[in-house]
Amino acid sequence: xxxxxxxxxxxxxxxxxxxxxxxxxxxxxxxxxxxxxxxxxxxxxxxxxxxxxxxxxxxxxxxxxxxxxxxxxxxxxxxxxxxxxxxxxxxxxxxxxxxxxxxxxxxxxxxxxxxxxxxxxxxxxxxxxxxxxxxxxxxxxxxxxxxxxxxxxxxxxxxxxxxxxxxxxxxxxxxxxxxxxxxxxxxxxxxxxxxxxxxxxxxxxxxxxxxxxxxxxxxxxxxxxxxxxxxxxxxxxxxxxxxxxxxxxxxxxxxxxxxxxxxxxxxxxxxxxxxxxxxxxxxxxxxxxxxxxxxxxxxxxxxxxxxxxxxxxxxxxxxxxxxxxxxxxxxxxxxxxxxxxxxxxxxxxxxxxxxxxxxxxxxxxxxxxxxxxxx
Amino acid sequence: xxxxxxxxxxxxxxxxxxxxxxxxxxxxxxxxxxxxxxxxxxxxxxxxxxxxxxxxxxxxxxxxxxxxxxxxxxxxxxxxxxxxxxxxxxxxxxxxxxxxxxxxxxxxxxxxxxxxxxxxxxxxxxxxx
Lengths: 375, 129
What we know:
Chain A has helices at residues 9-12, 26-38, 49-68, 82-92, 126-133, 155-165, 184-187, 212-215, 252-268, 270-289, 314-323, 336-342, 358-371, and strands at residues 14-15, 76-79, 98-101, 117-120, 139-143, 168-172, 191-195, 206-210, 228-231, 236-238, 295-297, 304-308, 326-327, 329-331, 347-351. Chain A is α/β, with parallel strands linked by helices. Chain A has a seven-stranded mixed β-sheet with strand order 2-8-7-6-5-3-4, with helices on both faces. In chain A, strands 11-12-15-14 form a four-stranded antiparallel β-sheet, covered by helices on one side. Chain A has a two-stranded parallel ribbon with strand order 1-13. By secondary structure, chain B is an all-alpha fold.
């Protein structure tokens, strides 16, 4: 899908590591370059024409991001990534207790370790276990789609549980917002966190969505220029969300690039992106059934697949694949506690995006078949 | 862990010597060093040198001769130790020969006629001796 927009590397190399970071299309790169060439200045501060242009583009980017997830631009705070977004919530609000799932990425585990933390399993009793743990004033912070195997948690039902119990609810949408239609109108979470570099944007960009009802009570972690209306030597008058959260000159070109990436995805349509990945996943499943020697965690899910074998370590498998110009990521994917539970040392994860095609999957399986000759 | 550490120390020696001549081996030397340091701190190796060396060797053999690739993959530890011991032994022998050549002018001081390389005749060491 629209392969011509991506760097040549995508045509000469089988890039299957989009769950880690995606490639950026020409449109995003050009837009970022436009900032450096035409209006390289401070947004939101300088009254000159270049400053105004930069500010206009940043606010346009905020609108593009908001449109993609069905929010208003006043709900969108720019951060450096999902990790930063989650940490801002962890440091900016007080919760009685935090409830997470066993499948959380370290980014949604480590920030909560100073809290009273409950971990629920994602098995068949997930919802009832979660419901029994949550009370008013708690936070439920959950991954939407697992970065290990693509498992999707029923966050619509969790949202209802949070609402009924008076708990806050945060969604780690790092692996869902880039790959499927995601609307805060349907889910009604308090917070949503996701990264720009996993959705065709540049690294070092991310988003924290906050619903109106929690914006006032969320304290900014960092304070400084651009986040206040006025200050004295003793105190300051903070701006409203999101501007109170964005102290200092932002990553302007990155934000503009992220806005362009969201616009690019909106033009294609997230439904089409999802359908494309479903087709590729179906083909992957068809091929993995024909190959012996390799296992796949949760092969029923779409978009990303974690492979492992009793006969070869996943890291070594990834090294072999790399020699055939196939890029996958191997390791524990920042899910160390969950891997201890699984009793699997590590996996090699292949993940797809809109620029991948059937040929990429064929290349992967050709290489796997070759590698299996050494077993 | 101990077994891997031993192999890492051996790689450290081998790639330390080969790294003098080649940048590829220098990278492996640095990774071996990291691995040894991590083993002492009881941390896992970020880059497993053994895996990298094994993947390099076996992958290049897969197309040429899958059976040899399979054999190397299966007995990699044993083969590694054999080659490491041979490498260290031949390096030690070479150093001792060079030392004899410098000090005694012959690689076989007890029987100079049995040495094919004679420093005085070949002029290898010139005015050094």
